[in-house]
């Protein structure tokens, strides 16, 4: 798919890429789209030279490897920030509810001197994209908007869903029984994240230029609850060392 610019019709980009690839959507398919192209189309791209850093950003920048401008963007995009002094990063509780490094702000696959932010409302972005693609294809497909995040105590990044429409993001097995008749009490499967991880294998992380992946054959459960079921409340966090001063974190 070609480069996406602010104001572009992303659905048209994706539809043309489908046609060029010989892909015809069918009922039951679903689409995973990298957040970067969504953010670019929605103008969520920032020229770093135009960012005015405040005193708090300047102070935190001295404690990390970030510039004051990037630090200001992280503060602007976050509800809370936890400096991780020995790693030179800022863990944040993003305004959308995710806990992630550096407020999920990305410089990769962006022009030099620019940064890409998450969409303002990724669930709404997914709904708009689904409607626009349905007009072109005649097929109503669930749409997931993906990003890549790290995981506690594990190396490497995986795809996760930051936007969702049209399918159940979390499958609840609580109350069902396993093959030995034992009742399941806590099993809840993050289906949307798993689908985004599968798509991420096809998208790649460098110069592959594959920001959208169509998945066929997965029997999803229709739903319109967005990504809300994926968001764990802070008081239920199992791993959050950045919030613990004993681990070098300082809550702001």
Automatic annotation (TrEMBL):
Domain Coenzyme F420:L-glutamate ligase-like: 3-217
Top-level taxon: Bacteria
Family annotation (Pfam families): F420_ligase (PF01996)
Keyword annotations: GTP-binding, Ligase, Magnesium, Manganese, Metal-binding, Nucleotide-binding, Potassium
Gene3D superfamilies: CofE-like, CofE-like domain
GO molecular function: coenzyme F420-0:L-glutamate ligase activity; GTP binding; metal ion binding
NCBIfam families assigned to the protein according to its UniProt record, in alphabetical order: F420_cofE (TIGR01916)
Name of protein: F420-0:gamma-glutamyl ligase
Organism: Pseudoflavonifractor capillosus ATCC 29799
Gene coding for it: cofE
């Amino acid at each position: 798919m070609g480069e996406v610019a602010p104001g572009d019709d992303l659905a048209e980009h994706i539809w043309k890429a489908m046609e060029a690839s010989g892909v015809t959507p069918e009922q039951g398919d679903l689409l995973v789209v990298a957040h970067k192209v969504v953010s670019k189309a929605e103008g969520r791209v920032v020229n770093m030279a135009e960012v005015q850093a405040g005193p708090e950003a300047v102070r935190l920048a001295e404690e990390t490897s970030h510039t004051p401008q990037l630090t200001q963007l992280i503060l602007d995009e976050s509800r809370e920030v936890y400096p991780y002094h020995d790693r030179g990063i800022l863990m944040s509780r993003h305004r959308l509810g995710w806990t992630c490094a550096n407020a999920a702000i990305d410089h990769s696959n962006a022009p030099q001197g620019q940064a890409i932010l998450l969409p303002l409302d990724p669930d709404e972005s997914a709904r708009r994209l689904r409607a626009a693609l349905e007009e072109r294809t005649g097929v109503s497909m669930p749409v997931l908007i993906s990003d890549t995040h790290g995981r506690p105590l594990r190396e490497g990044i995986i795809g996760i869903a930051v936007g969702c429409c049209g399918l159940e993001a979390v499958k609840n097995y609580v109350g069902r029984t396993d093959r030995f008749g034992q009742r399941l009490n806590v099993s809840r499967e993050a289906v949307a994240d798993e689908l985004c991880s599968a798509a991420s294998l096809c998208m790649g992380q460098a110069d592959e230029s594959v920001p959208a992946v169509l998945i066929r054959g997965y029997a999803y459960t229709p739903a319109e609850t967005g990504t809300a079921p994926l968001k764990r409340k802070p008081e239920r966090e199992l791993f959050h060392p950045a919030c613990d001063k004993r681990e070098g974190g300082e809550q702001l």
